[in-house]
DNA sequence: AATCTATTCAACAAATTTATTGAATAGATT
DNA sequence: AATCTATTCAATAAATTTGTTGAATAGATT
């Protein structure tokens, strides 16, 4: 094989992988699968897509070896093939937020007009944990919490939050987190908490960003 | 704006950026521009593309704000817009090498059948530098060396290497590097050096990978 | 073995991406 | 001001990607 044929082969393969990510629905699927494993039907529901279409996008990701499957009874669960998939999505996400004004603007405007709330970085949360006085709240659906969460975080899915407010301490600051920087559960939770007299802020990023930094996590066994 | 409209907007924008990278020629252009800035004609020549076609690909990257231009006299020089572009390319590259058997296999086979040589990682090179006994050889074209190189590296573009072999010490180990893991200059250099009785190995990755880790670099002023 | 059901497949039209060609343009240089 | 030239644009055909529909399938469950 000559030099040019070698390069063509390598870059064509890399473009193939890049293409498999280059679609809004597939990026959203990747972000979702960073939370754990899900059957097609749940993925389709989360992403607001017809099942057959979600399945097609999943085939694309599977063919590119970015996701793997795991059959349990009647259901086929999809999951990310490994950490590098999330790392690449994270790099793309950060590139987009930094480079494309539209994204930063849309995120800020959405947050501001709908919530206007405070947020903390992962580093800031680490400091708060060291100093002790903080309650960490996981507002994702319970199955995602069970699959992995920040050590000592309390699970309180957003849909249950209003009923379970009393369980939370009034004095300690509450940091709510969810799937990632574009996940709205944490915004909604902080808005509700603040309105109800709690001191609360959201974590800017999500659980997978915490996990990839090798910060302490727990898994719920069953 | 509601939740779904917000997410659609964000993921569509991120997919737009991803699409702008999702092409073999554009990935190769990004890797080249990680070495410095180049006019269209040089880019086209390096990538083996008609100029009009290279220009079109550059427009795609410019529209996505991944590259910027800089006019000098009659020429328009293209460069990466910032570090995150290289970081994302690096993430994609590592994902590809790890996930896609074809890539690893092609790289290994190409190296083995053509050269069968040794290589060292960036961490290993750092150790070798500490212990003193190593010569670092930059075999990229001189303009790329001038734009930025590993501190204390000697510039000896591969095309001049055979004439200038005598300038190199026989006893010290020589580590040659070039643009990145798919760049062949370093392989060719190590093959020639080894054949001529020098002790040589290539750096697995390239100068931009060194630079992004904040390891010591120099720029040639003029 | 028959049934059930989550998922995939197949086929199609619409939209997008790509390479090629030759002409147009912007902005230096003379 | 005229010329030169590196780069971009415009137009086209071919190839690829996308969403939709309804049927097919594989593998549990009964």
Written overview of the protein:
Two copies of one chain form a homodimer. The first copy, chain A, is of the alpha/beta class. Chain A is 55% helix and 16% strand. Chain A has a five-stranded parallel sheet. The first copy, chain A, has a three-stranded antiparallel sheet with strand order 1-3-2. In chain A, a hairpin with a 2-residue loop joins strand 2 and strand 3. The interface between A and B is large, with 55 and 55 residues. Chain A binds a DNA duplex (30 and 30 nucleotides) through helix 4.
- Overall spatial form of chain A: globular
Helix fraction of chain A, binned, reads 40-55%
Q: Spans of chain A with pLDDT under 50 lasting ≥5 residues?
A: none
Structural class of chain A: alpha/beta
Strand content of chain A: 15-25%
Largest sheet of chain A: 5 strands, parallel
Radius of gyration of chain A: 19 Å
Number of strands of chain A: 10
Cross-sheet strand order for the largest sheet of chain A:
4-9-8-5-7
Q: Which oligomerization state do the chains in this entry correspond to? A: homodimer
Q: How many angstroms separate the termini of chain A? A: 53 Å
Mean of all residue-level pLDDT scores of chain A? 95
Give the number of helices of chain A.
11
Order of helices and strands of chain A: HHEHHEEHHEHEHEEHEHEHE
Greatest interface by residues involved: A-B, 55 and 55 residues
